[in-house]
């Protein structure tokens, strides 16, 4: 199973194996993957002072 966590227009896919991954761990992994993706395009990740739209989608 995998979950797509979207940060604005950017979707990050996080595998959660058998569905036993805690939400806290899932969000930490998604944020880590998002930061790595942003480093590749050299766009800084800044959360202070911005309203960030985040949503998730489950894939079975």
UniProtKB/TrEMBL annotation:
Stretches assigned to the Par3/HAL N-terminal domain: 1-41
GO biological process: cell adhesion; cell division; establishment of cell polarity; establishment of centrosome localization; establishment or maintenance of epithelial cell apical/basal polarity; intracellular protein localization; microtubule cytoskeleton organization
Spans traversing the lipid bilayer: none
InterPro entries on file: PAR3, Par3/HAL_N
Superkingdom as given in the UniProt entry: Eukaryota
Keywords from the named record: Cell cycle, Cell division, Repeat
GO cellular component terms listed in the entry, alphabetical order: adherens junction; apical junction complex; apical plasma membrane; cell cortex
Listed name of the protein: Par3/HAL N-terminal domain-containing protein
Organism: Accipiter nisus (Eurasian sparrowhawk)
Taxonomic path: Eukaryota, Metazoa, Chordata, Craniata, Vertebrata
């Amino acid at each position: 199973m995998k979950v797509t966590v979207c940060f604005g227009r950017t979707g990050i896919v996080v595998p959660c194996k058998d569905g036993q991954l805690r939400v806290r761990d899932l969000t930490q992994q998604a944020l880590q993957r998002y930061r790595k993706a942003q480093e590749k395009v050299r766009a800084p990740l800044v959360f202070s002072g911005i309203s960030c739209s985040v949503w998730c989608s489950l894939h079975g």
